[in-house]
Each structure stands twice: as C-alpha cells, then as structure tokens.
Amino acid sequence: MDKNTKKAILVVSFGTSVNETREKTIDCIEADIREANPDASIYRAWTSKMIIRKLKNRDGVTIHTVKEAMEAMIRDGIKELIVQPTHIINGIENDLMKEDVLAYADHFDSIRFGTPLLTSTKDIEEAIRAFMEDWKDLPEKEALVLMGHGTTHYANTAYAALDYTFKDLGYSNVLIGTVEAYPSIPSILRGLKELQPEKIHLTPFMIVAGDHATNDMAGEEEDSWKNQFEAAGYTVECHLKGLGEYEGIRKIFLKHIEESK
Questions:
Q1: Which region is the signal sequence (predicted)?
Q2: b/e sequence 197-212, b meaning 16+ C-beta within 10 Å
C-alpha cells in the first residue's frame, strides 16, 4: 500500500444532547484516539438522528450521521478506514451502523471495524476492573447499582454476563439493571433485599451521563430509579459520571482499534 494512502478512524457514538457530559466523555474518547493514532484523520458520526436534530436546532451545531461521515471521507480522499463504535454492546445501533458503512465499501481500499466495549469475556473483565478503580473504597455494607441502557436485541445478554462477572470477581454488592430490558428494577430490588445495604450508590453504566442518567436514574419523577429505591426504604446517592470519563474504559476502545488493524 502506498505510504501516502489517506487513513482515517471514524468514531461512531449514539450521541448526547447534554454538552457538559459530551465534553467529558465522547470528546475525551476521540482525543485519546487522535493522540494514539497520529497517522490517521479522526472523524465523528452519531447514530441518534433525534439528538443530531436537537443540537442543530438548539445550538446550530452540525454533527454527521454515519452516511454523511462516509460521504465526507470519500470527498476527502480517505482510502483506509477503521470504524470504532463507542457502543457498549453489539446491539441494534451497531448493526445498523455497519450496514450504513458497508454501503460505501466500493469507495475504500479497506474498511475494518473495532468492536464495542463489551464484546469478549476479557472485555467484560477489563471493563469491570477499570470501572471499579473508582469504587475500590466502596464499604461492604453499601451497594453500587449500575444503570445500563438495555435493548430488545439478543446482545442484551451482555448485561447479565456483566452482572454475573461482577459477582465472580468478588463484587457481591454491585448490581446492574437496564432501563429498557433485563435485568430490570424488580430484579435489582430482589438483589437489594438479600444484601440489605445501609446505602445505595446509583450510577450510569453508559458512555455518557445524559438524559437517561439525569432523568430516568436521578430525576424527580416518581418512577425514577432514585425515587423507586427511596420508596423501597433505601438511602440513595446518585453519581452522574459516564463511562467515557473513566481512563481505563477509554483504553479498551484504543485496544479495540489496535486489534482491528
């Protein structure tokens, strides 16, 4: 291959309308990727058209869809492409993203895909260790409850594997649930009944601490996780920190890029 061949990494995220969390998460992931890959141009695409529209209308900010990013790279003469999603699992968003990318395959010499955060068993273990760096001082009598997104896609089983692996690695007071699938709030409440913690720490297991974290998890609505746990008699503290803020989590994405080369 000609050494002057133009290389790029397309970083694909779901996106967020909360600018503060974007700066701490998606922006930081992209900055780390840029620093680790000085020979490649870095492009951004988001998969949530609703969030893209919202930012355009509210802030006048244009963010590419995957198709728009592919067309921009073709115009720029990119020939070797690595696509790295910041998705947690190999779910619907990831499948659709791959379809959109591969529709343009004829315009590139090579297209490779890095994998989402939780793809292999090793990924799950590494993600847990990176995540628990922040929680190594969690008292035994307190519980940590993580809010994942969840999906109807069969890849949702990654959350159950994650929950099991936390326990297997000795973190018996960590529970994980999802907003839209299994495990759900009733499962978590059953787990908490067994643990009887003096206090619950509630934090998102999502790349960004966006709308789900601020509203579904920590919001004032009656059905927010915080209020449901408090209604069940627990003391709750919320921590709005997205996975993109954890250096160890960002390193897993860097590793997935290297593994795709």
A1: none
A2: beebbbbbbbbbbbeb
One-letter amino acid at 141 equals K
Residue ranges of domains in the chain, CATH in brackets: 7-117+246-260 (3.40.50.1400), 121-242 (3.40.50.1400)
Q: Which residues pair with 205 in a beta bridge?
A: none
Q: What is the Cβ-side half-sphere exposure of residue 41, based on CA atoms within 13 angstroms?
A: 17
Q: What is the mean pLDDT of residues 157-176?
A: 96
Q: What is the 3-state secondary structure (H, E, C) of 143-179?
A: EEEEEECCCCCHHHHHHHHHHHHHHHCCCCCEEEEEC
Average pLDDT over residues 112-119: 98
pTM of the predicted structure, to 2 decimals: 0.94
Token representation of residue 11: 């970083």
239 is in an annotated binding site: no
What is the CB neighbour count within 10 angstroms for residue 254? 17
Question: What mean pLDDT do residues 108-120 have?
Answer: 97
Residues 118, 158: contact at Cβ < 8 Å? yes
Helices (H) and strands (E) in the chain, counts: 11, 8
Q: Determine whether the annotation assigns residue 212 to a binding site.
A: yes
pLDDT in tens, 192-246: 999 999 999 999 999 999 989 999 999 999 999 999 999 999 999 999 999 999 9
* Given 64, 149, 201, 256, the catalytic residue: 149
Record the tokens describing residue 61, joined without a space.
């900010």
Provide the pLDDT confidence category of residue 151 given band limits of 50, 70 and 90: very high
User: Could you tell me which of 90, 126, 131 has the C-alpha nearest to residue 242?
Assistant: 131
DSSP calls for 92-125: HHHHHHHHHHHTTGGG-SEEEEPPPSS-SHHHHH
Query: Annotated catalytic, 149?
Result: yes
